[in-house]
Amino acid sequence: EENLYSMFRRYGKIADILPQPFDSKVVPKYAQIGFPRLSDAIMARNCMHGFVVTESMGGGKTGTLLRLSYVKKVKGHSIWNWLTSHPRIVIPILAALLAGASVMIFDPIRTFFIKRHVSHSFSITESRLYKWFKSQTDSLSFRSSKHMDGLNTVWNHRRDLIDQLHNWLDGSSSDTFVVITGPRGSGKIEMVMDQALAGRKNVLLMDCKPIVDASGEAGTIKRLAGA
Question: Mitochondrial escape protein 2 C-terminal domain: from which residue to which, for each copy (predicted)?
Fold first, then answer.
């Protein structure tokens, strides 16, 4: 490398010298000399092509004849050319990377909003300001007192059922479920949501009828996601 540097440095600044690997059996032996400027490489090739390196300069007893040629330097756009010329390889890789990035980015967001929806974190009735304001007032209901008295009478009449439902919910494990049946308009949802589950967190109300009426697996998943 020192001999090559001393011979070619006079023609311009040398970027690097890449000698032939020591375990390479390619003949004739070679080395690559890189010039940052094209004009320097042209001048070095024109002056040194056919030059005989003597023994005193490290060319051996019989000397070494230099035969110079140009090697195209790999640039950044060559990678882009390779990517655009191999769509069968690049497109599946890009699709896999895009899918992975989508899962990494949007799955935590989806999980966050599901947890907030179940825990009612975004509900105004769960805010501290609403609870404080409600505690400072006697009533925030706009219904008539006669109507409220009627509802209280209904719930008092069903107090045994509400207490029994409380006991079932408090004593049941996560592997069991409770089914509430009754005629339409009998107040099943109000009894469960407004009475038995009043004050509980992590309550999710889901209407299963649109999910059952959905056609096909895709429709079921779509309605289940929007429930």
Answer: 158-225
CA 2 to chain centre: 51
120: left (phi over 0), alpha (psi -120 to 50) or beta: left
Domain assignment present for 131: no
CA–CA distances in Å: residue 61 to residues 49, 52, 58, 66: 20, 12, 9, 15
| Higher-pLDDT residue of 190, 43 | 43
Q: Please give the Cα distance from 9 to 33 (Å, whole number).
A: 10
- Measure the CA–CA gap between 189 and 195, rounded to whole angstroms: 9
Number of H helices, E strands in the chain: 10, 4
The SS3 call for residue 156 is helix
Residue 128, pLDDT score: 72
Note whether 121 and 113 are within 8 A (CB): no
**Do residues 17 and 34 make contact, with C-beta atoms less than 8 angstroms apart?**
yes
Distance between CA 11 and CA 147 in Å, rounded? 103
CATH number, domain with residue 51? 3.30.70.330
Domain that holds residue 181: 158-225
In a domain, 213, yes or no: yes
Identify the bridge partners of residue 18 per DSSP, sorted by sequence position. Answer: 32
Do 178 and 172 form a contact (C-beta atoms < 8 A)? Answer: yes
Contacting residues for 69 by C-beta, under 8 A, at least 6 apart: 45
Handedness of CA 49, 34, 32, 77 (dihedral sign): negative
Residues 6 or more apart from 214 whose CB is under 8 A from it? 220, 222, 223
Mean pLDDT (the chain, rounded): 77
